Amino acid sequence: MRKSNYVLAAGVLAVSLTACSKPAAPETTAAETTAAETTAAETTAAETAGIADGTYTGEGTGKGGKIVVEVTFKDSKIEAIKVLENAETPGFAEAMDTLTEAMITANQVDVDGVSGATLTSNGFTEAVKDALAKSGGTAEQLAATGVTAEKEAREDSYTADVVVVGAGGAGLSAAVTAAEAGAKVIVVEKMMMPGGNTLISGGEMAAPGNWLQAEQGVEDSVDQFYNDILKGGDNENDPELVRVLAENALPAAEWLKDDIQMTFEDYMLFFGGHSVERSLVPLNATGVEMIEKLTAKAESLGVEIHTNTPAKELVQTDGKVTAVKAEYDGKEITYNANKGVILATGGFGSNLEMRIANNPDMNEKILSTNTVGSTGDGITMAEALGAQTVDMQYIQTYPTCDPETGTLLYVGDVRLEGRSILVNLEGKRFVEELERRDVISMAVTQQTGGVSYMFWDEASMEASKVNVKHEKEYNNLIERGILVKADTVEEAAAHFGIDAAELQKTIDKYNEYCEKGKDEEFNKRGELVAFTDGPYYIMKSTPAIHHTMGGLKINTDAQVLTTENEVIPGLYAAGEVTGDIHGTNRLGSDAIADIVVFGRIAGKNAAEGK
Ligand code: ADP
């Protein structure tokens, strides 16, 4: 196992997933390139029985049409694959990134497709095969070289006390807790590294009564948090599960800080729908800190993490779940669990078929912030044993995502600090900026072009420092013209064709509300700070699929229930794979609280074989 590589790779994954989802500008097309016209840098094929060094283009047909790739071979190895042209929907386009990694690692073109993105996977593979054919090489030659195929030796079966499926925040919290309780734990993770959606999230965590609230004199309580979660979910939530979440959020945050040694920033964020500012922010405001520290802790406790190992099936013996069948490098591996199996496979935001089956509005036209691993596998595997699902139709969109890729834009956190307004193309505000995600998303879809424009000034930039905290994203947005910085309001508005005169009126009106201390139009919560001097910033964004509220029905012990509300012995679930905790709509920063709280409960109970 190359355990130490996870940490380094984590940030890379987050970046590459986002970068890949943007359709690449066509530099060359396959039609223009024939085998004879390849841009081969060197051609030394004759010297070996391998593949000629060089760069070749290839073409395939994906879900959205033509996919053109450029493949570089060196020493009979796939050195790089670049997508030159594609029209895949961003949620699917990300599958090409996963396949690229898999093909380079295995030095093969025949790798498993990404579930939920079959057509894209097929089209991409076809294009790479086409490039290989143009090089004059064959799949067999690649496989024979096999130099880069760093495969781990794997047994046919393993036995642990607790087997965890999925190495996101919930799975790792569960694994560490079970190991701390003395259990031998193995985690199987289908992607090449731990992290899941947790890794690419902002990592903020709601915790009522936390240390920063105490310092800043913010009054809060478990009851207040409990009421906010229920209200935010339109009371469709299971109150018992919500009670557990509310009561255990602070102990979970303290566990992360004191036991897991996570570093938190010294400020909080005010997420939409909460009644007070209560959300802790991890180092650098990303999920990387949490995944790195949980992974390190898990490894220090002897937890084995088997990556590239998708779980396929749960095994029941006399009604009790006793094993997980998974796959590694095309081979079936059985993971026996003496005490219990924990499903922590995340949501199904990247499984288009499952999305549409449960909510036809969540179709391929809507972009997604999710990693490609979020395909609802845990739900499918547990349903095969008669497990109950709840609230599957409730799928949340995040209101301010990249209009081209669907990536969640962290520069937009300036809104959560109360320092920006949202306007439409007509220059007018249309919603309370700290409303619930679903309310803002719905309001945005009703505006011209289905987009919103976030406006703020230099003082807000300095206060929030989003340009420093999320520097790479900031620079990328500026480069692509999705974010503009200008000396005057008029100039900034002109970049997007926003009605500048109306926007100025909107700003003046907002500033009056700030002076009065009351937003008379939208009743914006929190402190109101007037806009002052430039430069000014405007960022264009759109809603994208973010969280699936529905999933497996669990009890307060994180045990999975059947459709008859009976416990399935030996089976636990935690995190986004579960349902009924957030009702119709999850409030920002409640997911991290949820995954750690229920991850710890599942880990403890599974270790005890409860
Ligand atoms: P949560 O927030 O609930 O922890 P994440 O999305 O962060 O959810 O993590 C879920 C993890 O589960 C991801 O790393 C994902 O790749 C992994 N996963 C999903 N399906 C499977 C599967 N069939 N086998 C193993 N791991 C899986």
Q: Which key terms come to mind for this protein?
A:
alpha+beta; eight-stranded mixed β-sheet; 19 helices; 21% strand; globular; disordered N terminus
Unreliable stretches: 1-48
User: Which molecules are bound besides the chains?
Assistant: adenosine-5'-diphosphate
Terminal CA distance reads 31 Å
What is the rounded Rg?
A: 25 Å
Main beta sheet: strand number and arrangement?
Answer: 8 strands, mixed
Mean pLDDT: 88
Q: What class, by secondary structure content?
A: alpha+beta
Residue share in helix: 25-40%
Which overall shape is indicated by the principal axes computed on the Cα atoms? globular
Total strands: the figure is: 21
Strand content: 15-25%
Number of helices: 19
Overview of this protein structure:
Helix 1 (5-20) runs antiparallel to helix 10 (288-300), helix 5 runs parallel beside helix 19 and helix 9 crosses helix 19. Strand 4, helix 5 (169-180) and strand 5 form a beta-alpha-beta unit. The protein has helices spanning 5-20, 90-106, 118-135, 139-145, 169-180, 196-200, 211-216, 222-232, 239-258, 288-300, 352-358, 377-383, 437-445, 458-464, 466-469, 471-479, 489-496, 500-516, 590-608; strands at residues 54-61, 66-74, 77-85, 157-165, 185-188, 205-206, 264-269, 279-282, 304-306, 311-317, 320-328, 331-343, 389-390, 395-401, 421-423, 452-457, 483-486, 536-548, 551-552, 559-561, 567-573. Residues 1-48 have low confidence and may be disordered. The chain is of the alpha+beta class and 610 residues long. Strands 4, 5, 9, 10, 11, 12, 20 and 21 form an 8-stranded mixed β-sheet that branches. Strands 14, 15, 16, 17 and 18 form a 5-stranded antiparallel β-sheet that branches. The two termini are 31 Å apart. The protein contains 19 helices and 21 strands. The radius of gyration is 25 Å and the shape is globular. Bound molecules: adenosine-5'-diphosphate (ADP). The site of adenosine-5'-diphosphate (ADP) has 27 residues, from helix 5 and helix 6.
